[in-house]
Amino acid sequence: MFPNVADITNYRAALPKMATSGQPAEAQLAGIAAAGYEVVVNLALHDDPRYSLPDEPGTVRALGMDYVHIPVRFDAPNEQDLQAFSAALVKHQGRRVWIHCAANIRVTAFLGLHRVLNEKWADEPAFELMNSVWKPNKVWAAFIA
To answer: How far apart are CA 17 and CA 93, in angstroms?
Structure first.
């Protein structure tokens, strides 16, 4: 039996084919694959063992999913990271995509920005997921603005 993906830290269903969360454990990645997800996008850094797995790319690929890593520094998000994120969403449009970072903070902010800037969503619905997880600090509030 695979772990329930809804039990992953700060799990949110973003769209029928998209979910977001904090860092999944290896067993939870197997649950993500078993739930039919095809792509894992990771916005967290790989250099902190508290918030990363020893070999997430290898684990994800061994489970038959594609892996995209866009390392976003929490204290310094930038436009290039956001552009890479949006490009990954466009590239994998129509596929089941799981997006995570350490705690679903970077992800929900980037997803809100992507929705406003690229999909022309209004601010309130675009940032609904973010507001259900956290309130941006000064760095992120300035970046979002």
So the answer is: 9
Residue 22 and residue 10: Cα distance in Å, rounded? Answer: 6
pLDDT at 109 over 80: yes
How far is the C-alpha of 131 from the C-alpha of 145, rounded, in Å?
Answer: 15
Please, what is the Cα angle at 85 between 83 and 91, to 5 degrees?
A: 100
- Take residue 140 and report the two structure tokens written for it: 């992120």
Residue with tokens 């790319």: 57
113-138 per-position pLDDT tens digit: 999 999 999 999 999 999 999 999 99
E-assigned strands of the chain? 12-15, 18-21, 39-42, 66-69, 97-100
User: How many whole angstroms separate alpha carbon 38 and alpha carbon 64?
Assistant: 7
Q: Decide if 8 contacts 87 (C-beta within 8 A).
A: no
How many Å from the N-terminal Cα to the C-terminal Cα in the chain? 44
61-96: pLDDT as tens digits? 999 999 999 999 999 999 999 999 999 999 999 999
